[in-house]
Amino acid sequence: MSRPAMAGHPLRQRLARWALGIYVLVIGLFLLAPILAITAGSLTTTSYVVFPPEGLTLKWYLQIFEQPDFLSALGLSLGVALAAATVATLLGLMVALALHRYPTRLNILIQLLVMTPIMLPSVFLGLALLVMYSRIGLAATPWGLFAGHVMMVTPFTVSLIMIGLGSVDPVLERAARSLGATPWLTLRHVTLSLIAWSLAAGWGFAFMMSFGSLEVSLFLSTPTMVTLPVKIYSALEWSPLDPPLTAVSSGLVIITLIVLLILARVVRLDRLLGRK
To answer: What pLDDT is recorded for position 87?
Structure first.
C-alpha cells in the first residue's frame, strides 16, 4: 500500500466516526425534542405553555398535589402497572419455559397466539376486550382493566425471557441434576439465577407499557376508574394545553425514564442483542 493511501485511511476512519456521531446526535435530538419541549413548558412562570419557557418555576408540579383527580389516576395507573407487570412476568416465565423445554410442531402457532396482542392495533384490542368483557360481566370493573393490561404486556415478557433462556448453557442444568438437585431446585437456583436479568427486563418493559397505555385503558376505563394517560387525554380534549397539564405529562415521562434507567443498570443491552 502506498504512503498516501496509508495516510488517507485513518482520515477516512475519522471522518466516518464524525459522520456517524453527527447522525446519532441528530436522531437523538429528534427523538428527545418533544420530551424536552413539554418538560420545559411545565417549568414556565407564565399561565400558558411557551417554549422556551419564560423563567423557571416548580409551582405547576406542586399544583398536582392539589388535584385529587390526577393523584387518583396516578395511583390507579401505578397499581395496575405494578400488578400487571408482575403477573405478566410469571405467565411469561411459564410460557417461555414450556416453549423452550418442550419443542413441538405447535410451538410456532403458540408463539403467534401469544404475540397476537402486540400485532393487533391497540384500538382494535381495546374494543375487542370491551365487547368480550361486556358479555362475561367484567366490563367497567378493576379486574377487567387489570386483565386487559396483563394480556397486552405478556408478549413482551415472553419474548425477553425466551432470550434469557436461549443464553443458558444446558450443561449447567444437567450438572445440577447429576449432583442430586430436583427439577424445582435446578429451576430455582440455577435457571432463574442465570435469567434474572431477562426477568427484570421483561418486568420493566411490561411496567412501562402498562403505565403508559392509552388505547386499551380508554375502552376499559369508567368515569370513576380512570388511568393517568386517559385522564391526560380527557383533559386535552376539553381544555387547552396549560402548564399544570404539561407538568402531569412530564411526571408520566419522568417515572418511565426512572424505570428505564434502572433497567439500563440491571440489564446490559448486549444481552438483549444476543451478544456475549
So the answer is: 96
Cα separation, 212 vs 228, in Å, equals: 8
pLDDT at residue 273, rounded to an integer: 54
Nearest CA among 99, 21, 45 for reference residue 243: 45
The pLDDT value given to residue 82: 93
List residues bridging with 225 in a β-sheet.
Answer: 222
Total domain count, the chain: 1
Nearest to 247 by CA among 106, 102, 43: 43
CATH number at residue 151: 1.10.3720.10
Q: What tens digit of pLDDT does each residue of 44-100 get?
A: 787 777 777 777 777 778 877 878 888 888 889 999 999 999 999 999 999 998 888
Domain holding 232, by residue range, is 67-272
Helix ranges restricted to H, 57-141? 59-64, 68-101, 107-119, 122-136
Distance CA 164, CA 161 (A): 5
Q: In whole angstroms, what is the distance from residue 70 CA to residue 76 CA?
A: 10
Query: Could you tell me if 97 and 165 are in contact, meaning their C-beta atoms sit under 8 angstroms apart?
Result: yes
Rounded CA-CA distance 96/82 in Å is 21
* DSSP three-state, residue 222: strand
Residue with cell 495516510: 7
pLDDT over threshold 60, residue 269 = no
Q: Would 20 be classed as within a structural domain?
A: no
CB 157 within 8 A of CB 206: yes
Model pTM score:
0.80
**How far apart are alpha carbons 160 and 19 in whole angstroms?**
33
Q: Round to whole Å and give the CA distance between 272 and 3.
A: 43
Gap between the Cα atoms of 243 and 262, Å rounded: 28
Which grid coordinates belong to 117? 396482542
The answer to whether 172 and 190 are in contact (CB under 8 A) is: yes
